[in-house]
Amino acid sequence: MQSVFYNGAPPPCPVPFNMAAYVLARGAACPAKTALSVLGEQDWTYGDLTAAVRGTATGLLRAGLVPGDRVLMRLGNTVDFPLAYLGALAAGLVPVPTAAALTAGDVAAMIATLNPALILRDPDVACPDDPRVMSLDALRALRHMPPADWHMGDPERPGYIIYTSGTSGQPRAVVHAHRAIWARQMMFQGWYGLGAQDRMLHAGAFNWTYTLGTGLMDPWTVGATALIPAQGTAATDLPTLIADHKASIFAAAPGVYRQLLNQGEIAAMPALRHGLSAGEKLPPATRARWEAATGTRVYEAYGMSECSTFISASPDQPTGADVLGRPQQGRHIALLGAQGPVDIGEEGTIAVHRSDPGLMLGYLGAPDETAAKMRGDWFLTGDQGCMDADFQITYLGRNDDMMNAGGFRVSPVEVEACLARLEGISAVGVAEVRVKQDVTVIAAFYTGPAPLDDAALRLYAEENLARYKQPRLFIHLPALPMGANGKILRARLRQQFEASS
Known about the structure:
Elements: E1 4-6, H1 19-25, E2 34-39, E3 42-45, H2 46-62, E4 70-74, H3 80-90, E5 94-97, H4 104-114, E6 118-121, E7 133-135, H5 136-141, E8 158-165, E9 171-177, H6 180-183, H7 185-192, E10 199-202, H8 209-222, E11 225-229, H9 238-244, E12 249-252, H10 254-262, E13 274-277, H11 284-294, E14 297-304, E15 308-312, E16 326-327, E17 332-337, E18 340-341, E19 347-353, E20 362-363, H12 367-372, E21 374-375, E22 378-387, E23 393-398, E24 403-405, E25 408-410, H13 412-419, E26 427-436, E27 439-447, H14 454-464, E28 473-476, H15 490-500
Parallel strand pairs: 2-11, 4-5, 4-6, 6-7, 10-11, 10-12, 12-13, 13-14, 27-28
Antiparallel strand pairs: 1-17, 2-3, 8-9, 9-20, 14-15, 15-16, 17-18, 17-19, 19-22, 21-22, 22-23, 24-25, 26-27
Helix pairs in contact: 1-8, 2-3, 10-11
């Protein structure tokens, strides 16, 4: 038996289609219901949310934009982010959400690739000066304009673009079709256990794609209520917010679960049914501690920027502590070796069939890179796994050197290229290393005439790298381990560090 999961395709996406219209359709039947509560600040009903989205769409079109134009989003952790995102989609524009932590240099490189028609900017978010910028005040004024008609069209047309890092070290623009949102319905029971009665509290910021999808778009699609902590909320306050606001589902990255567990006793959360985890691998020890402390399960999901999440555990399909989950119903997943799908029980590369409605259209302006990720009809994730006879998949790790920092994928090549510019560094290798049982950080190993001042290294990193890309450790070595081809052996760096710790 081969490691292939396929029980039939999901229903086809309707034609014509608009992602924003689909997300807000269920809310039209309950306009007075709370769609979003920014905890302690403001509530939005479905009626108010829809009006603001369609007003924003009108304003963007009146600003001279036409369907298909790209809109770069440099917005902070506020409700402006999802309103602008859905407003652009409603108008047939292509929003490009980006992390607020990016530097002006990072964004300048994106602008050169994207050539956006408009840049939506919060003054507190780094962005180079550009004549295409629309201010935050101007953006907010658009909410009150008359409602635009939904821009309906081919579900295969570009819907939105998100950025991920690749092994080349350069962030890659991942283009998704409008139909990507249609594919997310496979998560509703395959991961979330989500219904219209739920109140989902997501611990992430508005301007993180994990929050945008799991915390907002998906609850709104089913007519549920999304709960988002106000900016600046401490992780230790989350259990009280979950209890006070009767959250039934809690979603967070593994790091948040660790922070909550480290505070000691966790307040009772009577309405909470279960938690969700994604963004990086959830350590089994963290899962066990959470379940013992709260009496609720945590269901993990695996995915990537190119295809969101497609393997998961769920209330209907729980897994053991060491098992990632199983492909969601409607997915077509395989574990591939050099000759095709491997046998059950053997290690292979996790792959997604090209027919998956959630799979990206491709990398913007990079057809060769897009083609390189395909093997026949299969998209290669670059991660290794092992499937059992019940289609449960155990995650075995990455087959490259990509790092994970707080849920963001980070290329060591990008960080190394930055640090190599610093005087006094002759060579540098960067790797993700384990410093505690459940904690990993980015470490920079470098050679040079003498060790450099750690404070100066950190300051340089702060000035040149987004926060999540900055190394937390700087280690001077007499030499870096090299392979026969002259490449740095990053895995060896990690192994040597962890062996000596």
